[in-house]
Amino acid sequence: MDTDCSLDPAQSLKVQVQEPEFHSQIWGFSHHPTTSSSSSTKKIVCTFSFSLMTPSRSWKYSERLGKSQSTVAIIMKILSPLPHPVPTSIKYPVKSLQMDFKAQQTLGSTIDKATGTLLYGLASRLKDPRRLSFLVSYIANKKIHTETQLSAALEYVRSHPLDPIDTVDFEQECGVGIVVTPEQIEEAVEAAINRHQSQLLVERYRFNMGLLMGEARAVLKWADGKMIKHEVDMQVLHLLGPKTETDLEKKPKVTKPRPEETDWRTAKDVVENGEAAGQTVSLMEQLRGEALKFHKPGENYKTPGYVTTPHTMDLLKQHLEITGGQVRTRFPPEPNGILHIGHAKAINFNFGYAKANNGICFLRFDDTNPEKEEAKFFTAICDMVAWLGYTPYKVTYASDYFDQLYAWAVELIHRGQAYVCHQRGEELKGHNPPPSPWRDRPIEESLLLFEAMRKGKFAEGEATLRMKLVMEDGKMDPVAYRVKYTPHHRTGDTWCIYPTYDYTHCLCDSIEHITHSLCTKEFQARRSSYFWLCNALDVYCPVQWEYGRLNLHYAVVSKRKILQLVATGAVRDWDDPRLFTLTALRRRGFPSEAINNFCARVGVTVAQTTMEPHLLEACVRDVLNDTAPRAMAVLESLQVIITNFPAAKSLDIQVPNFPADETKGFHQVPFGPIVFIERTDFKEEPEPGYKRLAWGQPVGLRHTGYVIELQHVVKGPSGSVESLEVTCRRADAGEKPKAFIHWVSQPLTCEIRLYERLFQHKNPEDPAEVPGGFLSDLNLESLQVVEAALVDCSVALAKPFDKFQFERLGYFSVDPDSRQGQLVFNRTVTLKEDPGKV
C-alpha cells in the first residue's frame, strides 16, 4: 500500500491509497475553524469530516470526541472487517472534533446515524476483536438496533469466548427479531402510572419520572427507550395537565443528613482469613477498592485480555468443582529479606479481598533462589503476617511443587514450547539481546540436555531452559530453569536446577487454584507469560490483576539498599526503627491496627502511590490515643524541692490511665517533697507568652491538686541552675494557674531514644534530587539517645512492645533491648505532627 499524506492545520488533510485490485480510494479530512460563543471565552472548534470510497460503498462519519488519534483508531477499527484497504496510521492533531456519520451501500441499504452510533459504541467497547465482524453484520442488517441490544450482545460474546457462537441462543439473549409494539409500550406505561397515581397527583411534575420509565423498561426489556419516554410524557400530561406556575418553581433543596463517617479506628480486631473478630465491613470495602470490578470465580474469561483456548471452559468447570466457587488469593513473598510497608498493602489486599468475599488466602513462599534465602526471613515473614492480624488458610512453598514443575517443564519441551539454551547471563542482559542460536534445536536434543542439567552435568551458567514467547516489555524467551549448586533449605541437595519466577509463579497459582492472582504493577510485563504458560500446558489459568505499589517519601525499602545501610553502620539492622520495614515499625511502636488502617485509607489503585510519612503517623496517633495508657516522664530533668510539703511522707496520687475516660482505670504514683520537672518548664527570664514556672508565675502539678510557686533558684559554680525551691498550695485555694506541667517523684531511670527521619530529602533514591546517592542524604540527627531520662514507677513492669503516652511528650514503646531494672523506650510519634514535616 502506498500512501501520500500532507497536513496543514488551516487546510485539509488528504490521504490517497492506491491498491491494484481496487479503484483509487481517498480518505479526506477537512478542517474548518469556527467560533463558539457558548461561553464568555471564545474557542475554536474544528470540523472534521471523513469519507472513504470503494467500488462497493461510500463512507462518511462524524462524532464529537476529545482526542483525534483515538478517534481515527476507532474509525479504522469499525472499518477493518469490511472488504477494503485502509491506511494503517493517521495523525490529526486537533483537540476537538466534530464528525458527521453517514454510511451508504450501493445496493440500497442505508446506514443511518443511529446505526453509526451503535457501530461507534461497538468499536469503543468491544474487547475481543475476533467478534467484530460478527457483531458489525448484526448492526448493519439492523438485527441489533438499540443500545440495550448492543449491551446484551457485548455481554454475550464476553461470556461465550469459544467458537462457534450459537446464533440461535445469541439472538434469543439479545432480543433479535423481537418487536415491541406501541400498544405494548402504552399498556406498560399505563400500568406503571396506575401504581403510582396517588403520589403523582400529590407531587405532580416533581415526581421522579425515571421510576415510571424504569418499571416500563423492566416489563419490555427490548423496547426503545425514547419511545418509552415519549409515552410517559404523553400519559403524565394527560393525567396532570399542563405545568402550572407552581410546577415550574424550583424544587427546594433538601439538606440531606450527612452519613456518619465510619470510624475506621474501631477496626482493631485481629483478622483471621477464615474468621474475623468483629472487623468492620467498611474497612473491608476500603481494602477492596478496584476489586469490586474483579471477575467472579469461574468467570476468568470475562476479564479483558484473558486468553482462552479450546480447553478453557472445561478447565474452569473442573476448577469450580474443586473450589466450590470460593475466592482464593495468595500472598507470595520471597524469603530473602524482611517485609516492608509496601508488603503491608499487599497483605491487606490479598487477605482482605479473600475475607471480604468469604474466601481463603494462602501464604506461599517463593523459595526458588536458595542462594539468598535464610531461615530468619521465613520466620520474620510469618511473624509479620500474624502481627498484622491475619492467619493464612495454609502455608505453602514453591518447593512443595518442584516435582510437578519439573514434569511440566519436560512436557513443555515435548510440545516444542521450550528449549535448552547455552547463552550466558551477560548475553541476555539489555533491551535487545541477540536471539538464541539454539531456539530451533530438535525436541529430543533439548530433552536429553535438560535431563543432563537435572543430573548436574553442566556448570552454573552453561545451560538454561527457555520458553518460546515474547513478553509485553519485549523480553524474548524468558528463562524457566537454571543451574544452581546451592543446597536448598527444604530439599537439600535433591535439586541442582531451580525454576524462575516467570515459570513458577503462574503454575503454583494454577496448582493451588488461585482465583485472583493479585500483584503490583511492575509484574504487568509478565502477564503474557503468565497466561501463555498455563495455556501452553493446558492447565487451569488464573487471572493476574495488577495494582499500584505503595511507597513512602523519605524512605528506601530496597533489600539491597537496606543491606548497604546496615553495612555502613547508618542503621543497626533490618529492624532499626528509622526504617520502614514491618519489623522496624513494630519495634518503633507502630500498632498493626494503624498500619492496616493506613493501607485502607490509601486504598487499592492501579497507579503507584507515594505517601507522606506523616499520614501514616496520623493513623498511629489515632490508634494509640485510644490504647496507650498515660504515664509521666522527664527527658531533661530539673530538681524541685517543695519546702512546705503538706505531709510527713510521700502521698499516693491516683492518675487516670486515660484522662478522657476514667472508666478505664487508674494507676498510682508517689508524690514527695522532691520532684523533677522538665528543664524547659522553668525560665528565670521568660519571653512574652511563656506560661510555665517563672518568678511570680506559679504552675500546677498535673493530677496532684497542688500549685507550686518559685521561692529560690539554686545555681552551681558555673552559674547553671541546679535546683529550685518552691512552696505549694492547694489548687482550689487561690487563683487558677496559667499552666499545669508534668513531673515525676521517686522515679525510675531509663534510656529514651528519639527518632527523626533517616533521610533529608523526599526522594533519596532520585539522582536529580540527591546527586550523591541515598547514602549521602542521611540525616545525622535521626537518632538522639537520652541515657538518663526519668519515668514514673507505674511502668516498672512494662514488657517489650508495651506502649504508653508520656504526657506532653509523645507516644513511646518499650524496646526489646530493655533489661530488668533498665528500661529502654523508643519514641513512636510525637503528640502532634511537626508543622515542618507536613
UniProtKB/TrEMBL annotation:
<feature type="domain" description="tRNA synthetases class I (E and Q) anti-codon binding">
    <location>
        <begin position="740"/>
        <end position="815"/>
    </location>
</feature>
<dbReference type="InterPro" id="IPR004514">
    <property type="entry name" value="Gln-tRNA-synth"/>
</dbReference>
<dbReference type="Pfam" id="PF04557">
    <property type="entry name" value="tRNA_synt_1c_R2"/>
</dbReference>
<dbReference type="Pfam" id="PF20974">
    <property type="entry name" value="tRNA-synt_1c_C2"/>
</dbReference>
<dbReference type="GO" id="GO:0017101">
    <property type="term" value="C:aminoacyl-tRNA synthetase multienzyme complex"/>
</dbReference>
<dbReference type="InterPro" id="IPR014729">
    <property type="entry name" value="Rossmann-like_a/b/a_fold"/>
</dbReference>
<keyword id="KW-0648">Protein biosynthesis</keyword>
<dbReference type="InterPro" id="IPR011035">
    <property type="entry name" value="Ribosomal_bL25/Gln-tRNA_synth"/>
</dbReference>
<keyword id="KW-0030">Aminoacyl-tRNA synthetase</keyword>
<dbReference type="InterPro" id="IPR049437">
    <property type="entry name" value="tRNA-synt_1c_C2"/>
</dbReference>
<feature type="domain" description="Glutamyl/glutaminyl-tRNA synthetase class Ib anti-codon binding">
    <location>
        <begin position="628"/>
        <end position="728"/>
    </location>
</feature>
<dbReference type="GO" id="GO:0005829">
    <property type="term" value="C:cytosol"/>
</dbReference>
<dbReference type="Pfam" id="PF03950">
    <property type="entry name" value="tRNA-synt_1c_C"/>
</dbReference>
<feature type="domain" description="Glutaminyl-tRNA synthetase class Ib non-specific RNA-binding">
    <location>
        <begin position="228"/>
        <end position="317"/>
    </location>
</feature>
<feature type="domain" description="Glutamyl/glutaminyl-tRNA synthetase class Ib catalytic">
    <location>
        <begin position="326"/>
        <end position="625"/>
    </location>
</feature>
<dbReference type="InterPro" id="IPR001412">
    <property type="entry name" value="aa-tRNA-synth_I_CS"/>
</dbReference>
<dbReference type="InterPro" id="IPR042558">
    <property type="entry name" value="Gln-tRNA-synth_Ib_RNA-bd_N_1"/>
</dbReference>
<dbReference type="GO" id="GO:0004860">
    <property type="term" value="F:protein kinase inhibitor activity"/>
</dbReference>
<dbReference type="GO" id="GO:0019901">
    <property type="term" value="F:protein kinase binding"/>
</dbReference>
<dbReference type="GO" id="GO:0006425">
    <property type="term" value="P:glutaminyl-tRNA aminoacylation"/>
</dbReference>
<comment type="similarity">
    <text>Belongs to the class-I aminoacyl-tRNA synthetase family.</text>
</comment>
<dbReference type="Pfam" id="PF04558">
    <property type="entry name" value="tRNA_synt_1c_R1"/>
</dbReference>
<dbReference type="InterPro" id="IPR020056">
    <property type="entry name" value="Rbsml_bL25/Gln-tRNA_synth_N"/>
</dbReference>
<keyword id="KW-0436">Ligase</keyword>
<dbReference type="InterPro" id="IPR000924">
    <property type="entry name" value="Glu/Gln-tRNA-synth"/>
</dbReference>
<dbReference type="InterPro" id="IPR042559">
    <property type="entry name" value="Gln-tRNA-synth_Ib_RNA-bd_N_2"/>
</dbReference>
<protein>
    <recommendedName>
        <fullName>glutamine--tRNA ligase</fullName>
        <ecNumber>6.1.1.18</ecNumber>
    </recommendedName>
</protein>
<dbReference type="InterPro" id="IPR020059">
    <property type="entry name" value="Glu/Gln-tRNA-synth_Ib_codon-bd"/>
</dbReference>
<dbReference type="GO" id="GO:0032873">
    <property type="term" value="P:negative regulation of stress-activated MAPK cascade"/>
</dbReference>
<dbReference type="InterPro" id="IPR007638">
    <property type="entry name" value="Gln-tRNA-synth_Ib_RNA-bd_2"/>
</dbReference>
<dbReference type="GO" id="GO:0045892">
    <property type="term" value="P:negative regulation of DNA-templated transcription"/>
</dbReference>
<dbReference type="GO" id="GO:2001234">
    <property type="term" value="P:negative regulation of apoptotic signaling pathway"/>
</dbReference>
<dbReference type="GO" id="GO:0005524">
    <property type="term" value="F:ATP binding"/>
</dbReference>
<feature type="domain" description="Glutaminyl-tRNA synthetase class Ib non-specific RNA-binding">
    <location>
        <begin position="98"/>
        <end position="225"/>
    </location>
</feature>
<dbReference type="GO" id="GO:0004819">
    <property type="term" value="F:glutamine-tRNA ligase activity"/>
</dbReference>
<dbReference type="InterPro" id="IPR050132">
    <property type="entry name" value="Gln/Glu-tRNA_Ligase"/>
</dbReference>
<dbReference type="GO" id="GO:0007420">
    <property type="term" value="P:brain development"/>
</dbReference>
<keyword id="KW-0547">Nucleotide-binding</keyword>
<dbReference type="Pfam" id="PF00749">
    <property type="entry name" value="tRNA-synt_1c"/>
</dbReference>
<keyword id="KW-0067">ATP-binding</keyword>
<dbReference type="InterPro" id="IPR007639">
    <property type="entry name" value="Gln-tRNA-synth_Ib_RNA-bd_N"/>
</dbReference>
<dbReference type="InterPro" id="IPR020058">
    <property type="entry name" value="Glu/Gln-tRNA-synth_Ib_cat-dom"/>
</dbReference>
